[in-house]
Every structure is written in C-alpha cells, then in structure tokens.
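Section handout 9: paired folding examples.
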Amino acid sequence: VIHNQSQQRVDYKDAFLEVYGVPIAYTPFFSHPDPTVKAKTGLLAPNYGSSTELGFHIKTPYYVRLSPSNDITLAPTFTSKEGVVMGGQYRKRTQRGRYIVDASLTQVDQRDDNNAKTGNKDLRGHVFTSGNFGLGEHWRWGFIGRRTTDDTYLRRYDVSSDDTLTSRFYVEGSRGSQRLTVDAYAFQGLREEDDPGTSPLVMPQIQYSYIGKPGPRGDTTRFDASTLSLYRSDGQDTQRLSLSTTWKLPHKTQDGSIYNLTAQVRGDGYRVTSMPDTSTEGV
C-alpha cells in the first residue's frame, strides 16, 4: 500500500480482499483518493438488485467534478429485461444560489393491456429539478419541477413512490413587519383514477401580511390579504380574494395568568367560471 501524499491518493498493488481470513477477490492494482480529498472524479460504489419487472439490475454511478462550483453524477442502470436506463444528476452553485437537475430516460418495448409486446418502442423518463436564488437583501426566488412521462415509471424503476408530483415557482420577500409571497403550482397525479384535465393549475397565489407596532397597552393590529386563482382544462375555474384585519390585546393578571382579547374582521370574494352543467342530471 502506497500513500502518495502529494497527489492525495492511496494505491494498492497485488491486493486481496479477505473475509474471515479467506481471500475472495484479487486485483493487481487499485487506487482511491485519501481522506483529505473532498471530491474527485471517479467511480462510486455500484448498487444492484432484482425485481419481477426489470430482472437483475445494476447501477454504476460515475462522479465527474467539473469545477469547484459544479459537478455531475452519471448513473446508468443495466437491466436484464428492460435494457439500459440512462440517468444522472447535475449540480451547480452560482453567485446567488444553487440548482439541481435529476433526470433519467429509457427506451423500452411498448406493451398492450395484456402485457404483450406490440413491436413499437416507448420513451420513458423523469425530470426532477430545484433551485433557490437571492434577489438582493430582502427577496429571493426559486422553483421545484417534478414531471414524469407516465403514471408507473417512477415506481417501476424505483425512482420515487409518490402518487402526486408537485411543481412550484415562487418569489418571496420580507422587510420589517411586512411579508409578501407569490406562488405558482402545477400537479401531476400518478394514480389510476387521476384525471389530468381536473388537476388545477395555481397561478398565482399571493399572500401579504403586515403587523403594526404595539400600542401603548401592548395591543397589536395585523392585516392579511391573499388571492388564489385555480385553472383547469376540464373543469371549473376559481378565483378568490380574502382580506382580514385582526386586533389583539394581551392582558396579564396579578396571579400570572395571561389572556388575549382578539377581534377579527374578514371578507372573502369568489368568482367561479366553466362550471359543469348539472341541469340535466337525473333526467
């Protein structure tokens, strides 16, 4: 065993792997970074297993350090029944934040409802991505993207067991006693009964809050406003506006008990369009 300190590497020549004193593996040469290395291009430990759908499968990840601020892990999975699944993850740090892209793609035989091959090919895969970034001292923005080609891909290839994928884009900021958040959401249902046409697209959801300074008696006033818009390609669309004002007065008695006197006024307005026609139901 040779520890090359200048190259931060440990080399092995004529190495044996023994279990309870019995040699089970041999290699004429083997090398790996020493413990002082935080990241270095090279092979990672493989993962393997077997399943009814894929047969025997093995994943052989390979890490590539592109620069101190970005890297990538290539992770192809070789299966005995479904061929090769190409996958990987890219990570990047910028001056204002960071983002990650995790994706996979494979081409498999198309099958009918009886699981028989049709002779055609299907492209299947997924993309998961996320990021967050600063916008000056008081603001930031970010995103989460999660999509797949079909309902069963994630579970079949052991990517995720989620039955709903949620994508989000947001901008938020706070300054003093004020806070503002603007969100947009999209959903992909992966259950058999999920209908893509009725899945809502939230664009936007806006929430604002302001807390005033305490009064001479310790009372505070809070103002909240929010708006929400839901759109569907096959179903009703909804818009909502909510306004509320809350006044709170704390009171402490001589025996140490604390009471809060609270008063609130709230109003909500709704607008609904594209409602289904139920006038002929039961006829």
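Moving on to protein 2 of 2.
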Amino acid sequence: MHIHILGICGTFMGSLAVLAKQLGYRVSGSDANVYPPMSTQLQEQGIDLMEGFRHEHLQPSPDLVVIGNALSRGNPAVEYTLSEGLNYMSGPQWLAQFVLHDKWVLGVAGTHGKTTTSAILAWILEYAGMKPGYLIGGVTKNFPQSAHIGDSAFFVVEADEYDSAFFDKRSKFVHYAPRTTILNNLEFDHADIYRDLDHIKDSFRKFVNIIHPDGFLLTAFSDEHAKDVLAGASCEVETYGFSPSADWVADDYKFENGEGHFTLSHKAATIATFHLPMIGRHNIENAAAVAAMGIKLGLTAQEVQKGFATFKGIKRRQEIVGIKNDVTVIDDFAHHPTAIKLTLEAVREAYPGQRLWAVFEPRSATCRRKIFENRMPQSFTPADRVIIAGLFAPDKIPPENRLDPKRVVECINENRGDAFFIPEVDALVDKMADECRPKDVFLIMSSGGFSGIHQKLLDRL
C-alpha cells in the first residue's frame, strides 16, 4: 500500500509518516518547506520527500492521500486529489483507523503541557519495560523519533484539540477513543478555529464522553474549566494537584540542584517522594499526574522514579541552547500568556539572583490577535527586561484584530517594568548583545523559528 502525506514536515504529519513506514507501507510526502529536523528524520526512515504541492507528486496515484490540517481548498495537490477521486482522509482519522483501533490509548489533553506530559509518560512506561507506542508533538531527547508503533497494547498520544482537516473541523482528539486520559488544564486558545472558551469546552466534552467506560480520567484539581467538562464521563475520574483536597496530592515541593522534588499521596496515603530533572512547579504538577497514571497502570513507585531520573527533556521546552561568556540562552515554545508566565517563573526559580530577559515573538494564530492583549503585560512580570518582536505574518490577521505589541510594552513600562518593542530580529540581537552582562539569562519564546535568533545571539556573544 502506498500512502502519500500532504503537509508531511509538520510534527504531527511527520510522525504519522514514521508510523506508516514502521507498519510496512510505502510512504511519500509533500510539503511547502522540506527542512530539518523533520526532513532528516523522515529521510532516515526511507521516506520520499517532495518540495511543494505539485499534482505530479500524486502520479502514479497512491492508494491513499492523508491531508494535513494546514492545507485547504485551492492547494494544487488537494484540488488534484478531489478532481481525480483519489482516496483521502485526515491525519487523525488515519491514526485512529490504522494504529489506535486495537490499542490501549493513553491520551494526554489540555491547553498547556501536553507535549511534556506525554513525553514523560511514554518514557516511564518504556523504561519500565512496557514497550509502549507513542506519538508526541515535539522532539524528545529520550527517543530517536517523535513516534513509534511499540511492542505492546499501550499507546501514548498527545491528544490535540486543534482541528483535523479542512473537511473535518472536529478536534483531532475526538478520533482517538482513549482508555485512560490525563487532562492537564483548559483555557481559551486557537482563536483561528474556536469562537470562545465555551466553544473549546464543547470539544473537550466530546472527548471526555468517548473515554472507555472501564477507563480512567485524571484531571487537574485546580482547573475549574477542566472540571467543567467532566459531566459526560462514564469512566472513573480522579483529580491531582498541589491542593490537599485532590485525590492525588503533590506536596513538599522544592527545587534543588536542578531538580524538582515532591511527595505524592493518594487519598491521604503517602506513595513516595519523587524528583524530576526539570525546572518549574508546573512541570512537577505534570509529573504528579504521570506518576499517578503510572501507578494506576501497575508500575511501582520505584519504577516511576527510575523513569523520572533518566528523563532528558524535550527540545524547545526550557532548552538551554548555549552558554557563551557566562550568558545563558534558553529556547521555549511558550506562546500563550499562561505558558509565558509559568515558564518565566520556572526560569526565575532556576536562576535566582540573575538578570532574566524575556524575548517574545507573537507568532501563533491566537497571540497575534488582540484577544490576550490585556493579559499579556502581566504574564511578563517575572522578567527583569522584556523585548517583544514584531508580529509574524501580520497581514494574515485583519488590522482591527491584531495584537498591538507597542501597547503591550507601554503597559509593562507603566507598571514599572523595563520593556522594549523591537520589530526586527537583527536590531533585537544588537540590543541583547550590546547590553547583556555576565550571568544574564535570555529566555527566547516563540512557536516558530524566530528567524534563527538563538544562534545569531550566540554568534554575537
């Protein structure tokens, strides 16, 4: 069977290509920009990559075309697929039909922390010898690729609420029919496809409603929006978090020697003390959920801890990309006000007494809009200095709906902050390089490549 994937270099679609190849199918794919690291991963798997979306890429006709959600009507390959009557489906539908149909699906859902939580969960299962399959929306440092079929019934999937395809506007996760689920949190995001928070909640309610009745749902105690979508759950439901009222309680949190430490209890019975080599209280809360899920699946506390101790992290999640002249440069994917604030708090805790720069590119479909303009200044509070770059592809957002970065900077400065609006990357790098001093920490946040700013800064340093 020959499968051709349109939009193959996206993390999700590239992961599908890896899974399809492991299942023994012939796999090829097209994308507008074929570039590393995904292109390298795919080529190493023996997958044929083609630049652009020419209809010749679909000749001779493949048995199936899998269409990514970044593509729409008007795309030459999409139009050819439809006009020639080729078999096609969305990525999530393919994953459900070809991979997940006979698996014990462990879904990790929520607005924030899905990638980290699913990566830690997959790793502790792998380290304990359970040989799970997985599909993770990021590049983990423990696994050789972002997806793997696995050698057991278990399959960990990052359950994304984004839409499936131009012809299927349902969230990806409604295809997955999980048996066990972690629901981290729920906030408004993805303003390009959701009207408001209630619209997103409707999708999460559908997701909760299809969890296997003999399964298990673990949700954050402190998140009222997450708890608001649980009414349709027919499975066992428990909560986790720092609150003593949660079913699974993370207590005695402290950060020492580059690790977060916590004690986990279940309904007042102490399980064990764990430590995770990651920064940030929010990551410890994610780890508490993973530990609870691992124990529910039959792992011992010792097995969970060994998995935690060997977890190496994820690229673009508080990743140190370089230290030059005693200046530290950190890369992170944060693009939502909540994620920005939590990440800054984590870095502040890890580097006490050092000057912290927050450098942010408004790039995602949501943060380029005015929706969070009033919330955004407060999210930068933990930083000593803030630089906000120009909007990525501003022409794609109507002028009346665009975020005003200048206004965000003005609000920060009105509240005794130290912020700058510098739209061009080269000028931004000049500012950082000219004014930095030893022990400074640069946290650079963007949901994209940010024009290679990290290496440009390191080269200047």
